[in-house]
Design brief:
By secondary structure, this protein is an alpha+beta fold. The protein contains four helices and ten strands. The strands form two sheets. Strands 1, 2, 3, 4, 8, 9 and 10 form a seven-stranded mixed beta sheet that branches. It has a three-stranded antiparallel beta sheet with strand order 5-6-7, with no helix packed on it. Helix 2 packs across helix 3. 23% of the residues are buried.
Amino acid sequence: MGLATETERRSHEAAPLLIQQCSIRIDKEDIKFSAGHFTLFADGERERLHGHNFKVSAVVSTRVSAHGMAFDYNIIKRALRALCQELDEYVLIPTQAPLLTVRTAGRSVVILFGEDEFRLPAGDVRLLPIRNTTVEELAAYLLNRLVAIEPWSARWGVNEIALEVSSGPGQSAQCRWRSVGA
């Protein structure tokens, strides 16, 4: 085994490989929310009211700039934390569920499902424009909100964001947004 020749050494010291696209994963322990909910099933049944510690993470696909960085990660971390804070410690109620009737009565929110009636303090409820409080719907809702916050494509060259919501270990849903032309 001989020593590498000068030419071989120089070929390994050549300019670094220029990566045009990169995926950045944001998966911080404090990007989460705790919330109460119930899932509505296709057969017309529902779960009992219960809660989860939901975890939110994102994978952002973007170009890498000439200085070797895609964008300031703090921007997306702040946005995700703010979105989680909006849902933290609330009962989440879907307003687009065909089997639910949701109305306000004074300082209460009244939710009707068949013969069941929930009457909750309005300050404890987040009414969400979703069909069901599943990880699938929560992922789509949060992704749409995230995309609306920042001009990701125009400002940062982001061409795709995958947002994942987990209701516990081993149970999550991921939704994707792609910029026009990506």
